[in-house]
Amino acid sequence: MMGSDEKDRKFATTLARGLSVLRAFRASDDGLTHTQIAERTGLPKPTLTRLTYTLSQLGYLSHAGRNDKFRLGPSVLLLGSVAQVSISFVEMASEAMQKLADSSGTLALIAMQDADRMMLARTWRPQNTASIWLEPGHRLDLFGSSSGLATLAAMGEEQFAALSPTEDQRAMRQRGYEQLLERGFVITPADTQYTRRIHAVSVPFFAGEYGAPVSFTCGALPKDLDLERMEQEVGPALRDLVRDLERRTGRAPTLARRG
C-alpha cells in the first residue's frame, strides 16, 4: 500500500513512516527494541533512528535509556483518551458486547478498516470460558475475514473502487451484500476464508465519526462455533445488538447508506 501512496504528490511519506512506528506496538508488548520495530515496519535503521528520536522528543514514545525498550508515550495516551470519548458508540455497545461474549462463549470485537486490512479496535473476552486470543491492534485480512466481508458489503461503491478490487473480490463482496439483505449478518464462505482456524460472524455498523462502516464480530474456534450456531444463534443475536445500537444512536441502517 505504501508504494502506491508514495507516488501521490500530496502524500507525506515521512509522516506515514512515523505513524507506522506507532502502529507497530501491540497491547501485549512490554516495549519494543529498535530491531523489533524495524522488523514490523520494514524501515531501514537510519530512518528508524531519526523517527524514534523525533517521536520521543514529542512524547509519542518513551525511552528511558540506551538499552531500554521503546514504549508508547504520554502523547499517545492523550490521543487515545480523546478518541475514546469521541467514539461514543463503542462505549454504548460495551455492556451488550460483554454479555454476548459471555452467553455465546465467543470473542466479541469491533474491527475497523485500516487500508487493506481490518484492525481490531476493541475486544471483549468471555468470562470463565477459554476463547481465542486476539487483542486490539491485531489485523485481519480485509478480503477473507467476516469482519472484512461485512465492511466491504456495506461500504459505498466509491470507497470499494478505491481498493482496486479484482473480479473475484467484487464477487465476494456481492455475496456478502446478499447475506446482509437475507439475514442481516455475514459469514465468510469457506472458499474465501483466509484461515480455517477461526469461525466468525459479523454485522456492519455505520460509524458517523468515520463516515464509514465498521464491523461487530463474534468469533471462536470451529469446534466451539459451528455453522449452525453462527446461523441460528450467534449471528441473529449480534444482528439484534447492532440494530438496537442503531436505534439508540439514531443511525439509519448501514445498508441504507450504501451508494
Automatic annotation (TrEMBL):
MF-aspect GO terms: DNA binding; DNA-binding transcription factor activity
Key words, A-Z: DNA-binding, Transcription, Transcription regulation
SMART domains: HTH_ICLR
Swiss-Prot/TrEMBL GO biological process terms: negative regulation of DNA-templated transcription
Occurrences of domain IclR-ED (ranges): 75-251
The protein's name: Pca regulon regulatory protein
Domain of life: Bacteria
Start and end residues of each HTH iclR-type domain: 12-74
SUPFAM superfamilies recorded: GAF domain-like (SSF55781), Winged helix' DNA-binding domain (SSF46785)
InterPro entries in the cross-refs: GAF-like_dom_sf, HTH_MetabolicPath_Reg, Tscrpt_reg_IclR_C, Tscrpt_reg_IclR_N, WH-like_DNA-bd_sf, WH_DNA-bd_sf
Pfam families: HTH_IclR
Gene3D superfamilies the UniProt entry points to: 3.30.450.40, Winged helix-like DNA-binding domain superfamily/Winged helix DNA-binding domain
